[in-house]
From TrEMBL:
Disulphide bond pairs: C7-C230, C55-C61, C66-C72, C128-C215, C141-C157, C161-C170, C171-C181
Gene3D superfamilies (alphabetical): Thaumatin
Signal peptide: none
InterPro entries in the cross-refs: Osmotin/thaumatin-like_sf, Thaumatin
Listed SUPFAM superfamilies: Osmotin, thaumatin-like protein (SSF49870)
Keywords associated with the record: Disulfide bond
Protein name: Thaumatin-like protein
Keyword hit for Disulfide bond: yes
One Pfam family per UniProt: Thaumatin
UniProt source species: Tyrophagus putrescentiae
Amino acid sequence: MRIWNNCPFTVWPGLLNNPNKALPEGGGFALEKYHTTTFRVPDGWAGRVWARTNCNGAGHCETGDCGNKIQCSGAGGVPPVSLAEFTLDGWQGQDYYDVSLVDGYNLPLAIFPIDGTYKRVGGGKYDCNNAGWQADINAHCPNELAQKNSAGATVACRSACMQFNTDEYCCRGAHNKPETCKSRDWKVNYPAIFKQSCRDAYSYAYDDTSSTFTCHSADGRKTGYVIKVCP
């Protein structure tokens, strides 16, 4: 797996994975602007990757903080944060991957399968294609969802679930199924704001059909992926 920081500033990738699997890079590190780093994950790995911003020497980050430390060591990123999510070597060796805004947004992300490491099966839109987007959602985040820094700049955009904590937006209680978690029950269709900027990203908990990508390895090799920040 490779992480590529295409932002004009340093980011601090964070990693969180399934139990009993190796945690690459201790779960976090600094990555300078326009630099890449590569690491290996074990078979059957599942996890998420995110990019933290404006971390200080003590490890506290303005967005995506994982507990005031550079190596997250098994801690997740504090929302709102954009996520690259993976479940590798699933049913019949199939990988699943997506970009999720269910926990909100801080930076644009994209996932690219690496040429020569995969094969397409079926050739549909979600078969080994790129996931993610380029748009800056902070630029048009509704004021009621905006997370601002001390200078008053919007540095992240909260999800409606995080901001309002209702069963309707969080898809829980009577709304805990795809059939009952519907936009007709939302006072404002906030997930659509995320979806308009990134049509292939998860915008709420049951947004599977337009957000989950799959891929198969080629000739016994494991599919490689690039996670690009600021694509």
